[in-house]
Amino acid sequence: MRGWATTSRRSRVRRQPRPGALAAAVLAVTLAAVGAVAARDAHAQGRARGDDDSAALVEDGRRALRRGAYDDAAAALDQAIALNPRRIEAYVLRAAIHAARQQYDDGVALLRRAQALAPDNLDVVAALGTQLVLGGHPDDGVPLLERAVTADPARYGAQSLLGKRYAALGRWRDAVVAYEAYLAHRPAELAGEDAIHQLGLAEAYLRSDDARRAYALYDDVLARRPDEPAARMGEAWALAAIDCRRAVPALAALADLVPRFPQILVVEGQCRLSMGDAVAALRLGERYLDQAATPLASGWGLVGEAAAATGDLERARAALGEARQLEPAHRSWTRRLARVLRRARRQRQRGGRARRARRAEPGRRRCRVVARAGRGADRGRRARRRSRPGWRRGSPRCPRIARCR
Hints:
By secondary structure, the protein is mainly α. The chain is 73% helix and 0% strand. It has helices at 4-7, 19-49, 54-66, 70-83, 88-100, 104-117, 122-134, 138-151, 156-169, 172-185, 194-207, 211-224, 229-242, 244-252, 263-274, 278-291, 297-310, 313-326, 331-359, 364-372, 377-386. The longest helix is centred in the N-terminal third of the chain and has 31 residues, at 19-49. The relative contact order is 0.06.
């Protein structure tokens, strides 16, 4: 059932981190990144500042951040920046407090100052890209994150944000690379968040036509979280891409999720249609249209294709027209609608020919005369001239009429 995921692209279920979890993740990433280079830069910065005690203030701010005392951390880091305006790690840590409080504009402004002092510092580049993406400016932030991970693929925080952004843009192969890099480099203390990223990676596998790896990853998540809706649905989705006969029982087992996620009916309907059961597919599609608050193009497309398979071409044309209107850039709807229109036109033409033939039926005797006319060209022409004006060859009452030349 190749291609089903594309038609139901908007119907995916995504597990999003809570704002508090996102703030904690940003802080953890920032503390780890800045802590890794603090020891390397301390000696060089210490020679430049003399008796400056900004290093001690930065360390106080880092400890306050670890225990969640944002006010104490902000006060210590502000003093450190005032004492030594070139202490880059103080800017990065102070910006992380802005991110934890969702004050992204303030964090970006602070990191712009740091970038002017150290344009090649990867900590600043990654932190600025993170704040821009979280603040609603992904077009400015994603290139900075890509620059950071190109230079250092182990920056797992940037990889996580890139994976989510690539998934939102439908760049599934890039999302696979980013999620795999995150899971390969994230520290042990963040293992509790693996399920979120594994679900994102499994979806990226599925949408980049690697259903078997997606199925294995969804199965792994379900082993730890048996009631995870996204994993249950994703496993059934992957089975639908592998083998619809195995997927139908799995989709039927999701009946308890249908009121919340009616798109399950669309996937089951697509499976039924691919198995040749157009009546059941049409029933599921109609049920989806009744239950969905805002039906997606994939639901209308299922109804259109199932109706066409059952011979209801007018219903098929109307449903595929709705799908095309909802997703005008999706060329498959245009192709399917054109196929239905051609079929309907041929059906009308055949019906018209049959009606004209019935009206002009000359009777069995004249039919035999015209059938025998093929034995000679002159006799055939004379016989056809004697026929009624509305005569058409191929009458079902005269099987030999098709041989007339």
